Amino acid sequence: MDESEELEYTRRVDFDGVWYEVTTTLGKEGQAELMVEVEAETSGERWVGSFSSSYIETLTSKTGNFKRASTFARMVVSAVEGSAESVYVDLLTSADLEALRRRRHSAQPVVVNGGV
Predict the structure, then answer these.
(1) Are the CB atoms for 33 and 53 separated by under 8 Å?
(2) Torsion angle in degrees (nearest 10) through CA of 75, 87, 60, 53
(3) Over the chain, what is the mean pLDDT?
(4) Is 90 exceeded by the pLDDT of residue 107?
(5) DSSP 15
(6) Residue 50, pLDDT score
(7) pLDDT at 113
(8) Which one of 21, 70, 104, 116 has the largest count of C-beta atoms within 10 Å of its C-beta?
């Protein structure tokens, strides 16, 4: 993807037996904002997140692995496609997040989505 191009990608993805349509959009450089939309096919429930380039770059910098927003967006797309071995995407419910919080404060593992 050329830095001046807009990226828009939509794919049908199965998360734990439920099909979702995942759309990722990154605006052109200078107005770059990463938008991720996830919609459950059966219920129509929808989640939308919008992240500025500066937010993504600050966040990735804090992890010690800085990525430009366009690079991060391509990584998200490859994770949704399942074409990358080093990155993946998962959809967590509020219950999953709470289990992760408990696990973080506990020495005992907590089961999330059928795994540890």
Answers:
(1) yes
(2) 20
(3) 85
(4) no
(5) E
(6) 93
(7) 64
(8) 70
| Rounded Cα gap, residues 104 and 11, in angstroms | 32
- The two tokens of residue 109 are 């593992």
Q: Are strands 33-40 and 46-52 parallel, antiparallel or unpaired?
A: antiparallel
Give yes or no for residue 49 having a pLDDT over 60. yes
Average pLDDT of the residues in 18-31: 83
CA distance 63 to 23: 25
Which residue type, as a one-letter code, is found at position 101?
Answer: R
Query: In the structure encoding, which two tokens stand for residue 78, read together?
Result: 């490859």
Q: Read off φ and ψ for residue 17, nearest 5 degrees.
A: 85, 5
- Which pLDDT value is given to residue 1? 44
- SS3 category, 75: helix
What predicted TM-score, i.e. pTM, was given to this entire model? 0.73
CA-based nearest residue to 72, from 91, 59, 90: 59
Strand segments, DSSP code E, in the chain are 7-15, 18-26, 33-40, 46-52
The span from the CA of 66 to the CA of 68, in Å, is 7
Buried b (16+ CB within 10 A) or exposed e, 79-110: bbeeeeeeeebebeeeebeebeeeeeeeeeee
